[in-house]
Write a structure and sequence with these properties.
The complex is a heterodimer. By secondary structure, chain A is mainly α. Chain A is 70% helix and 0% strand. Chain B has 11 helices and 12 strands. The chains are: A mainly alpha, B alpha/beta. The interface between A and B is large, with 35 and 51 residues.
Chain lengths: 296, 345
């Protein structure tokens, strides 16, 4: 048992290859055609939303009594027009901004807050876990649609309030996932093994717990984006989210519902956009999940 | 027991060690007064069935049990230091650098999201102030030492990318990362198939000799224990009921439980149609231990005296001791213990 056993006798320094876990997941994800199609669609939607002001063929706020509710393919109105004669294509493009934002932002905030709460509860265990998780359960007991509507209603209409209420809706969901995954990891042999090699709690949380927990939480959060979009659309539909004349898919679906008998295809378009986006996010989440399944 | 002391002071000294788990409404006495000494460079096997307290004893050596619910009593010294009095920092210092552990299932004991190289490097850098490159160079030498083929490439492999035997070698490399003096092995060969088992045992033996390690080897496989151990200790219901030099214990077992355990192995001259001897019944509930000998209710030789209290440790050889009330009344040793039981033909 001497230090000499471990001294470098050949004096060579091995090359350190960086091939992280994240890179591996990405590589497997890139090989998954369904996930890649979904990712491409999401990328296109995001680009469309970002560059909408420059890409829009017409002014999305310009109303015209003459051009009300034109069908798809009308001259100058490729996707028809809404009940106030505004160009639907332009409105869908610009509306993507708010819709995507309302889909992603609450989930990101809930991911940070809920994930933190869940990991803390899961790692602490004992009475602290019980205290935190029972509080979370109180929020979790409400159906998410009801909770979102109630909170938005109480806070008042508006984008910020809708954002806050959606975040509150998602925190318990993400916290519960984070807690259960963390508890599982905390009881795992590799955390025991890390403790047996003298690792401090902080190091165990930072490396072993976070490393193993972030993946599943991230996957779950990704699948929540579509739910968030639909809930946000629902809030707008009820007049609790975005206010007219701002374009947003949920709100557009609401106002166009009166035209469902006269121009059903045009009226369905905002719904179609919501559908495509949420399906794409779900597919991507699915692909991420299988890409992260390292353990056979 | 002054003559049981080796020339050097022991690496591990347990005296009347008790480990109790306290959960609401229940007290589980997993370890009830274990006396054990392990000298430097000595390999001791702890043998027993599930729930006999062997793994609990092993984990207690590093105080790995949850602090809140576990209650220790007695003496627990590693390398002359009292583990039960250690603070958090001392404990972290002890773990890994003085005492290291290898686990039963390496696939579960290695973190799936990091490469083996990353995990070993992390362990090295926890205890030694070395650069990343230096730590990696050490990790590479460890991989060579445990004879992992193409070690450079394997350092960048994830646990799931390797075979069971290679994973256990990597686990051993990880345990040796900080040059410990004591290696605790918790059934390290149980999850492996037979041919790999023997390779791992030989490797452990070789490393033990080369590095002068003290090893505590927990197993229920007497064959594996015989392969590696200098001394053996048989545990039952949280006590060591017999301990002695491996060869002596295997050829001249004294305690009825040890004898029954040795007879219930399938190895040796098993004839077709002959029934495997088993020990009837199950070990006692650790939350309701009997006042007397815990094995009495399953013992073929139990008598009234056995139920009274705990048998004392009796010396039967220079390093051989047994806890049994009826030690002197048992059938003579040498010949196998016969039980009045018909043999099915």
């Amino acid at each position: 048992m001497t230090a000499a056993t471990f001294t470098d006798t050949r004096g060579r320094t091995p090359v350190v290859r960086s091939r992280g876990h994240g890179a591996n997941v990405l590589r497997r994800l890139l090989r998954n055609p369904v996930a890649m199609i979904a990712a491409t669609i999401i990328l296109l939607l995001v680009l469309m939303a970002i560059f909408a002001p420059w890409l829009m063929p017409a002014d999305p706020y310009a109303t015209s009594m003459l051009k009300r509710l034109k069908p798809i393919g009308t001259e100058g109105l490729p996707l028809g027009s809404d009940e106030l004669g505004r160009d639907l294509l332009s409105r869908l493009m610009l509306g993507g901004r708010l819709s995507l934002f309302m889909g992603i932002a609450p989930v990101v905030m809930a991911f940070i807050i809920g994930g933190g709460i869940g990991i803390l509860a899961g790692y602490a265990g004992g009475w602290l876990n019980t205290a935190i998780m029972r509080c979370i359960d109180v929020l979790y007991a409400f159906p998410s649609v009801l909770l979102a509507i109630a909170l938005s209603g109480a806070l008042g209409a508006g984008i910020t309030n809708a954002l806050v209420s959606l975040t509150v809706v998602f925190i318990p969901q993400i916290a519960r996932i984070a807690e259960s995954v963390t508890t599982q990891v905390r009881r795992s042999d590799y955390v025991d093994a890390a403790r047996a090699s003298g690792a401090s709690s902080l190091l165990i949380i930072r490396k072993h717990v976070l490393g193993n927990v972030i993946g599943p939480i991230f996957v779950y959060a990704t699948s929540l984006i579509s739910v968030s979009m639909i809930l946000a659309s629902g809030l707008s539909f009820l007049g609790l989210g975005v206010k007219p004349p701002q374009p947003e898919w949920g709100l557009m679906l609401n106002t166009l519902r009166t035209a469902i008998y006269t121009q059903p295809w045009v009226a369905a378009l905002p719904g179609l956009m919501i559908f495509i986006t949420s399906v794409s996010f779900n597919m991507l989440a699915d692909g991420l999940r299988s890409a992260m399944e390292v353990k056979q | 027991m002054p003559d049981m002391q080796t020339a050097h002071s022991p690496m591990i000294r347990l005296h009347d060690l008790q480990v109790e788990f306290r959960v609401p409404g229940k007290r589980v006495q997993a370890v009830n007064g274990v006396n054990l000494e392990v000298g430097p460079g000595e390999v001791v096997a702890l043998i027993g069935e599930s729930g006999s307290g062997k793994s609990v004893t092993l984990r207690a050596l590093m105080r790995l049990h949850p602090e809140r619910t576990t209650h220790y009593a007695g003496t627990l010294e590693v390398a002359g230091r009292d583990v039960l009095k250690m603070g958090k920092r001392e404990l972290a210092q002890l773990r890994g650098s003085s005492v290291a552990m290898i686990f039963q299932e390496p696939l579960l004991a290695l973190d799936p999201v990091y490469t083996l190289g990353q995990q070993i490097t992390e362990a090295i850098r926890q205890h030694a102030p070395v650069s990343r490159a230096e730590a990696r160079a050490r990790a590479l030498r460890l991989f060579e030492k445990v004879r992992i083929p193409s070690p450079e490439r394997r350092l960048d492999a994830y646990p799931h990318e390797m075979s069971g035997g290679m994973r256990q070698r990597a686990m051993i490399a990880l345990a040796l990362a900080c040059e410990p003096q004591v290696l605790l092995a918790d059934e390290p060969t149980t999850a492996l198939d037979a041919t790999v088992q023997i390779q791992i045992l030989l490797l452990l033996r070789e490393l033990q000799r080369e590095l002068g390690l003290s090893i505590v080897f927990v197993t229920h496989d007497i064959g594996a224990a015989a392969e590696i151990a200098d001394r053996m200790a048989v545990m039952y219901a949280g006590r060591i009921i017999e301990q002695g030099p491996a060869a002596e214990l295997l050829t001249r077992p004294r305690h009825p439980y040890t004898r029954a355990l040795l007879k219930s192995r399938s190895e040796g001259a098993m004839q077709k149609g002959r029934r495997l001897d088993t020990i009837q019944g199950a070990p006692p509930d650790l939350s309701r231990l009997p006042a007397g000998c815990a094995f009495a209710e399953r013992c073929a030789f139990a008598a009234e005296t056995c139920l009274g209290g705990q048998p004392e440790e009796t010396r039967v050889g220079p390093e051989h001791s047994v806890r049994c009330w009826r030690l002197d009344e048992l059938p003579a040793q040498g010949g196998p213990v016969q039980r009045a039981e018909p043999v099915n033909g």
